[in-house]
Write a structure and sequence with these properties.
The structure is a homodimer.
Chain A (H helix, E strand, L loop, with lengths): L8 H8 L10 H14 L1 H12 L10 H10 L2 H19 L8 E4 L2 E3 L8 E5 L8 H14 L3 E6 L9 H10 L3 E4 L2 H10 L9 E3 L4 H12 L3 E2 L7 E6 L5 H12 L6 E6 L2 H16 L4 H7 L1
Parallel strand pairs in A: 3-4, 3-6, 4-5, 6-7, 8-9
Antiparallel strand pairs in A: 1-2
Chain lengths: ~300, ~300
């Protein structure tokens, strides 16, 4: 972690420069994947699973046995933590439900905004270096509270052809309708166009690498809604003398470990706190499974 | 207007197919314009004004005289109508201001969403076949209510080098900070990067043709926020026997006249109403200044 004291306006601008993805170079690759899935459906998904994930797939859906195993394999304390997190997220989002005021702009003309749940939504959960079950919780929980009828989830299988049990447990807990073993730009294409296995959805949510992000941007141009083009992770923590240094360090590391391109900032005006947070970051880094990635980001 | 009675699922899907813009072909043109404005600032804006708008520009801003003339030239009843519309829009948006509930998810952890006004916003108002002063009202009014400090507006000048007085009157009424005579993809670039005259903004709003829409999508990839990639106009009116046929017809025509690619739909289960609306549409079309465009859309 670098320390910059009293940065001037120019330094501040440089420090706050957001990390951007280089999407342009992947344009043709992604456009070709979209076209192949639109034309060949499941067959294209299988082809790309073999090519990119090194997995030969008979089926894109999960068997009842796989679902059952996922729940039985997961440690009890992790299940409890996921349940607790889901309840917290649900409590937060339920508070956002409310009715709109109706406004009479001119006698006889009544105007209001009305929220109606999107019928079919698709969630993309990246694979790769860590099972992002928190993302499942944070996407699927508001979808269910809003009243979305169909909530499907796509995520790439590991080299063993399986989905991490924590992903499946979180999906089950949140009431996800169906999970499909497909990832990357091809998964976005599957949810945008529909295939034999994967239903076409109205809006696609979730983070992803630059291929996934570009695929979302391209299908958006074709009329499928997306949440946003997600970039690398960012966090800025403002800390004063009342903060617990261990918590501040944990908050910074939780984003730093997302990827070497994560942007992690701490703003403080207490020299003593700064030192304590630095110590905590070093200490917590030692036991972090994703130490190398977090260190690179810092 | 075509009438389709009791459409089946397949026909419904075809009828509801949204008009899409062909953006791909303009990619290089727009990328070149963005790069030129980023590099050459005002000089590039002047070059494109000459090339696309056939206007030689000494300055991109308006003189005090131009502002004064705009207000004095505008017919009194049009000014009154604009004032009335602005008040209605303001009433609607003021009702959307509210504070968020604070949620304690775990003792000591308080979560809430907080709305803060974006400091600098840029509004794009298309030129072309009609002065879109309603767009000025609908973008600038909520920006001011939200508390945006800087609200700048870009719009292309007519062949006489001037901005339509109704645009300027609406901008003045809404408290727009500054108006710049520049349009197209180059105006989006100016607000995204900043030039000698036009300030860089944090978020860009407003409709536009396919070049403008593509420019917004490209600058979004570079970190400037946009409202959305706007497509052609759409309206769907649901009418029962209590509706005033003249109003229904006017609502349909108000979007049909936007462009020949506008999508205009009426859903009704009253044969008598349908006939009356058809008659009203034909009658109102006769006196519509943009009759040819509206007819093409219908």
């Amino acid at each position: 972690m670098n320390t910059v004291r009293y940065p001037n306006a120019k330094t501040r601008a440089a420090l706050l420069q957001r990390p951007a993805m280089e999407a342009d170079t992947a344009h043709k690759t992604v456009a070709d994947i979209l076209a192949a899935v639109q034309q060949n459906g499941d067959a294209a998904l299988r082809k790309y699973a073999l090519q990119f994930d090194k997995v030969k797939q008979d089926r894109l859906t999960l068997t009842a046995k796989e679902w059952k195993e996922a729940v039985s394999q997961l440690p009890k304390d992790l299940k409890e933590a996921i349940r607790q997190a889901q309840q917290n997220i649900a409590r937060f989002h339920r508070a956002q439900q409310r009715s709109e005021k109706k406004i009479t702009t001119t006698p006889g003309v009544v105007c209001w905004r009305e929220s109606r749940a999107i019928e079919k939504v698709g969630l993309y959960i990246p694979g790769g270096t860590a099972p992002l079950f928190s993302t499942v919780l944070m996407l699927a929980t508001p979808a269910k509270i809003a009243g979305c009828q169909q909530v499907v989830l796509c995520t790439p299988p590991g080299k063993d052809g399986k989905i991490h049990p924590a992903i499946l447990f979180a999906a089950q807990l949140c009431g996800v309708t169906a999970v499909y073993k497909t990832g990357g730009a091809q998964a976005i294409a599957a949810m945008a166009y529909g295939t034999q296995s994967v239903p076409k959805v109205d809006k696609i949510f979730g983070p992803g690498n630059r291929f996934v992000t570009l695929a979302k941007q391209l299908v958006q141009q074709q009329g499928v809604a997306i949440d946003m083009p997600a970039g690398p992770s960012e966090v800025l923590v403002v800390a004063d003398e009342t903060c617990v240094p261990a918590f501040v360090a944990a908050d910074l590391l939780s984003q730093a470990e997302h990827g070497p391109d994560s942007q992690v900032l701490l703003v403080t005006w207490k020299e003593a706190l700064l030192q304590k947070v630095r110590e905590q970051v070093q200490q917590q880094l030692k036991t972090l499974p994703r130490q190398a990635i977090a260190s690179a980001a810092l």
